[in-house]
Amino acid sequence: MSATIGASHPEDVTRLITERLNAGDAAGVAALYEREAVLAYPVDRPVKGREAIRTIYQQMIDAGVKFGFESPLPTVAFENLALTSSRSADNTGVRVQVLRRQPDGSWQRIIDRPEVS
Predict the structure, then answer these.
(1) Three-state DSSP class for residue 73
(2) What is the arrangement of strands in the sheet containing 47-48, beginning at the earlier edge strand?
(3) Domains in the chain and their CATH numbers?
(4) Most CB within 10 Å of its CB: which of 3, 37, 59, 108?
(5) CA 27, 33, 38: angle at the middle one, nearest 5?
(6) For all residues of the chain together, what is the average pLDDT?
């Protein structure tokens, strides 16, 4: 499947990840992360690199995990960096991500901490 359309705004990344995860597209989700990005999931065992991130999302897909759509909280941006966040759909915490604008103008995650209580 693996969608290749990037995020034109930092806030688009969370929506695209949700859509791709729910469609069973782990490679498409991983494509929204930089090659050496860090995913702190679970928080005490962060993984580094797009392939490791793809593996984590594939495990979620295989387990039948579905994400609910979440409204983004206000983005904080500085030059080519952005801090995005959203309240979890189940209202158990906040998701926090750092993104970087790519040379083609799209945005990718570089640091992702899905749950902060």
Answers:
(1) coil
(2) 47-48, 33-39, 107-116, 94-101, 81-87, 76-78
(3) 12-116 (3.10.450.50)
(4) 37
(5) 115
(6) 91
